[in-house]
Design a protein that fits this description.
354 residues; alpha/beta; Rossmann fold; 2 domains; seven-stranded parallel sheet; six-stranded parallel sheet; 13 helices; 35% helix
Length: 354
């Protein structure tokens, strides 16, 4: 099958540091290539892939200080994909609703994975107007605010099986927080939970420009507490030791999380997750197997005291059973085949061969 993957241009694919969507696009692209598909990745020029790379912009927009309007490169990207759409069996977008108006008016089947939150009221008229455009959710819970959308399938994220693995021999003497410092991620909760258990917490997190005021006013004073160690952003090679050395990953979110990639990153390292019961959490964490699902800080503290009941080998096994990138790619192929069936299309490779 000839597949185009269209990534956001904000980060490289895969991202050098933080960047959930671009990391998922990379994992999916590589797994599709391994399954034997002919894949073209439209992304920034500093991306790395075994697929054909169409380097549409020289580098990730976040790293280019000259870019002030990030929408403009994406509009040009859409036009380039439209111009070449006939070359592919399926176009797979990862840039929200941007392709809806243009690509609903052309013939090549396309699908969009929605990676973000969907509970914003301004999205309702978008999905009312484009109720026939096929979309993929990354969790069943993510669909809740947009019942009118044309949901093709739910596909959970996945990681390469050997990308993150347990590191043996590291001292497990702290709780971990991984991700982003923002109001919805609630690193303040994680700090209080660690303090209540008498444990140290290590925080590996990105601080976006948009969250700088929140950090300065509410979080920075907490980072000065004696049990808190702020590490900053970490890359892929640093994650196994960071996560393997933790008693657990704290995921005390306060929003309808669409998926939560850090949860399966932790599971891949054999580290259980203590997560608040919001959004996708019950779909990702098997309570009492790969971690504990809690309702508040008090129950999170109690969960820390029960971590000894979760064998870390079992946590890793849950990752291998449910969240590898190969499994993710296979599920997406099923979605592509369903899309082609709905459009009554054969794949180009079969047409050319026959």
């Amino acid at each position: 099958m000839r597949i185009a993957q269209i990534a956001p241009l904000h980060e490289a694919v895969p991202p050098k540091l933080y960047g959930g969507t671009e990391r998922v696009v990379s994992n999916l692209t590589e797994a599709l290539v391994e399954l034997g598909h002919d894949v073209t990745l439209f992304a920034s020029g500093d991306s790395k892939t075994s697929a054909k790379l169409e380097a549409f912009w020289p580098q990730a927009l976040r790293l280019d200080p000259t870019i002030r309007d990030t929408m403009a490169p994406h509009m040009l990207l859409l036009e380039e994909v439209r111009r070449r759409a006939h070359e592919f069996d399926v176009l797979h977008f990862h840039i929200d609703y941007y392709p809806f108006p243009l690509f609903s008016r052309q013939d090549t089947p396309f699908v969009t994975t929605l990676h973000g939150r969907l509970d914003l009221p301004e999205l309702q008229p978008i999905f009312d107007a484009f109720s026939e455009v096929p979309v993929v959710s990354i969790s069943d819970h993510q669909r809740t605010p947009l019942q009118q959308a044309n949901w093709l399938k739910t596909v959970h994220h996945g990681l390469p099986e050997n990308l993150l693995t347990p590191v043996k021999g590291v001292e497990q003497g702290y709780l971990a927080f991984l991700g982003r410092v923002s109001p919805e991620k609630r690193v303040d909760r994680a700090i209080r939970i660690a303090q209540a258990t008498g444990m140290k917490i290590k925080i590996a997190a990105k601080i976006d420009r948009a969250d700088r005021t929140y950090y300065e006013e509410e979080i920075k004073p907490l980072f000065a507490l004696p049990h808190v160690e702020y590490i900053g952003e970490i890359n892929e090679s640093e994650k196994p030791a960071f996560l393997s050395g933790a008693h657990a990953l704290l995921f005390p979110i306060d929003w309808p999380e669409p998926f939560g990639l850090v949860m399966i990153e932790s599971m891949a390292c054999g580290t259980p997750v203590i997560a608040f019961n919001r959004g996708s959490v019950p779909e990702v964490i098997d309570n009492g197997i790969s971690g504990f699902i809690v309702e508040d800080e008090v129950s999170a503290v109690a969960a820390v005291n029960r971590l000894h009941t979760l064998p870390r080998a079992r946590v890793r096994q849950q990752f291998e059973d449910r969240f590898t990138s190969k499994r993710m790619a296979q599920n997406y192929v099923l979605a592509y085949e369903e899309l082609l069936h709905q459009k009554r299309r054969s794949v180009l490779r079969e047409v050319n061969a026959g």
